[in-house]
Predict the 3D structure of the following.
Amino acid sequence: MTSTEQAPRPGAGRAHPEHLGHVVFIAASAAMGGFLFGYDSSVINGAVEAIRSRYGIGSAELAQVIAIALIGCAVGAATAGRIADRIGRIRCMQIAATLFAVSAIGSALPFALYDLAFWRIVGGFAIGMASVIGPAYIAEVSPPAYRGRLGSFQQAAIVVGIATSQLINWGLLHAAGGDQRGELLGLEAWQAMLGVMVVPAVLYGMLSFVIPESPRFLLSVGRRERAREILAEVEGEGEGVDLDTRVAEIEHAMKREHKSTFKDLLGGSFLFKRIVWIGIGLSAFQQFVGINVAFYYSATLWQSVGINPTDSFLYSFTTSIINIIGTVIAMIFVDRIGRKPLALIGSSGMVVGLALEAWAFSHPLVDGKLPATQGLVALVAAHLFVLFFALSWGVVVWVLLGEIFPNKIRAAALGVAASAQWVANWMITVSFPSLADWNLSGTYLIYTFFAALSIPFVLKFVKETKGRALEEMG
């Protein structure tokens, strides 16, 4: 689904000013899938303790319900490409929006724990689809001169979705008197939190009806004239932009593409080629530092050390704002200082933040709360950790995964690396409640270890890709 056509001649493929606003709207609409991704990743944070109380379950069962959406994500991400190639990018977005809306309603009105788990899988499948379709579609409709900046809309939408869900959760909890199970709109507060997800899902679906199909897909099904019309919408015509030439370039690139398969990844003594293992390693380290604990369980974490529910939701929201700030920093500097230096800076900062959290949580609670000094350190360290992750690994890993693989294996290798990321995400998400019951400080020491281990991994195995053409990778 990714485009590999050659860079056009100078002046070609550059949207006219009057077209650029339309292109931005199209890219932002497609990035709503990223918003749903971020929103769903974080909204469950507000329901964790209520679900535990409502169904009387322990940490292990609770973790399965929270993490089960990731199974749907993995399946959705794995199948989205083929679905989109058969029925189109827009239809795929519409399916994802519909499934997500249905999932939101079902999650808000569950009649049993297994019912809630089922709807979370459905929602996860929709998110998995959207997470793949959004970046691919944006790349295919963006003028080459603006592709990088428009492509960053996806990650920006994810972090905004995380922050929005935290803010709405805080508002709903406040309206329910600070009780996750307090009555609100005829439901318990946590049900309202999950049900509100239907609003962005419907908006995503509505926007999909007003944006055009990808020219690349249209050409793949023989609709050459319509593809030319869409290119005219996003790039304009005249002043160095020859649309017939652009259409021919895309068609030529599509004919030259190699459809990589799993077999292409095999080689050497350890099943996969070395570069594939590096991609898997990047994906695993991104998750093994425990970043999703901050988004799935932060409210529960703060409540476990004596912070009241309303304040715990507020701290979750401020963490999300820090996440946005860090992401903007990464978008500014990833092409200036390079991927590898940014990853090393982030790893070093994460080690400090996680180690401080481990130290703070190692102290016994006094009257059900952390001592004042340790509580302050824990809060500052948590925000520090998220900041350094967001300004480095949160963005850098996705950039590297799109660049480090040779053209021949890029699509298949990306699929394996992305699957490794979902698996690692699931492992962290499902293990945290039980690990926290065992030893919260020890859990953060484990995350600190992986953050520290990522430093020699990057130094030894990751090559800088800044300024290099994709054809140079190998």
Q: What stands out?
A: The beta strands are 183-184, 187-188. The CA atoms of residues 187 and 297 lie 22 Å apart. Residues 410-461 form the longest helix (52 residues). Confidence is low (pLDDT under 50) at residues 2-13.
